[in-house]
Amino acid sequence: MDKIIIEGGNTRLQGEVTIEGAKNAVLPLLAATILPTQGKTILRNVPILSDVFTMNNVVRGLDIKVDFNEDQNEVVVDASGDILDIAPYEYVSKMRASIVVLGPILARNGHAKVSMPGGCTIGSRPIDLHLKGLESMGAKITQFGGDITATADKLKGAHIYMDFPSVGATQNLMMAATLAEGTTVIENAAREPEIVDLATLLNKMGARVRGAGTETLTITGVDQLHGTEHDVVQDRIEAGTFMVAAAMTSGDVLIKDAVWEHNRPLILKLKEMGVEVTEEERGIRVKSDTAKLKPVTVKTLPHPGFPTDMQAQFTALMAVVNGESTMIETVFENRFQHLEEMRRMGLHSEILRDTAMIHGGNDLQGAPVMSTDLRASAALILTGMVANGTTVVGKLTHLDRGYYKFHEKLANLGASIKRVSEA
Ligand code: UD1
User: Fold this and answer.
1) Which of 43, 120, 149, 416 could share a disulfide with 7, CB 3.0–4.6 Å?
2) Model pTM score
3) CATH number for the 2-20+234-421 domain, one of 3.40.50.2300, 3.30.70.1150, 3.65.10.10, 2.40.10.220?
4) pLDDT band at 43, cuts 50/70/90?
5) Mean pLDDT within 29-41
6) What number does CATH give the domain 23-231?
7) Which of 120, 268, 291, 420 is catalytic?
């Protein structure tokens, strides 16, 4: 098992950092490559992450040819032949996001059998909205032996209202609707930049998706889709993580090619705290002096609200700001586990249901800590940079799901950090 070791206390990040393509965009994009019956789909700017390898295997498991050229960050998919319709537990249990293959397999084959995703440490993650939406498009859904089976000779366009703007459900239903008969309207749809990226790819494949990025999506079904080429959007959460890293170390960092609009909710909160955030030709510059920062209240919400995927990292920043900050987590019900680990480093915080009070500005000390989920692992590493002494972060499998060479990028900016393998 690998570990990350950080010598913290005096870190001041400076320089430039490059951001990868977005994990949360590329996973549904790979699911979409199942749809075309003609030609190859080429995805570029694909990040080298364990979740991408898992999704490639899910698609390969359908008897589809997937080539990942890691040197070029390029995936080429040829789904033009007959495909299978089963996504097995082996992969779905590794990564919940694989549930987004259900809509495309069903739309393409009229039948799909996908393993139910299991539990998740950050909270209960039901898939009722995915299933309800497919049912309203005429799919017959049954659950048995841990699998979901969906059948529909031909999906039919439907008017779907989502009780919550679920990202995964919006993606699943949008993909299913591309090949349905007639028009599908999805109301209260998710509006994340990754939804817009998926709609862009689908339209390049010949689909007719309108309204991506707004709360109403209209999808007019077509008979078939074809291969195309597409560059994956930049990872706003990786970019945001480096913005926070710069802010909490009194740093001065240019996050190259980061997209201002995608990180707007985070940027506005950083500015409210007193962090200098400016848009430059080559990206976004973040400069700060932690002694001058003020505490803030943040509430996570679906986009364009503050992203839950930045919550853990932002609490690490709150920890170095003098005074009491408040973090309210409304998207997932159990996403404060990193605060328990940070308590081992001397952080004072109280959690009451969905609200965490962070008493920032106290001295933090390095300690051995365990990643509890993907974004928590980044938050613990960031905290290690400002804690006095040595921090050892274990369970890096979480980190590798979503960050490419995180420790190297931080080291290049001046952090004293290394990754070691342990037998
Ligand atoms: C995606 C992101 C994840 C991010 C999350 C919220 C990917 C691969 N993952 O996850 O990083 O944290 O969006 O921005 O893109 N819900 C239901 N029923 C459903 C579906 C969801 O009740 O059928 C609830 C969930 O329990 C959760 C909330 O909706 O409380 C948000 O989930 P959702 O937007 O679906 O997140 P994911 O797509 O799983």
Assistant:
1) 416
2) 0.97
3) 3.65.10.10
4) very high
5) 98
6) 3.65.10.10
7) 120
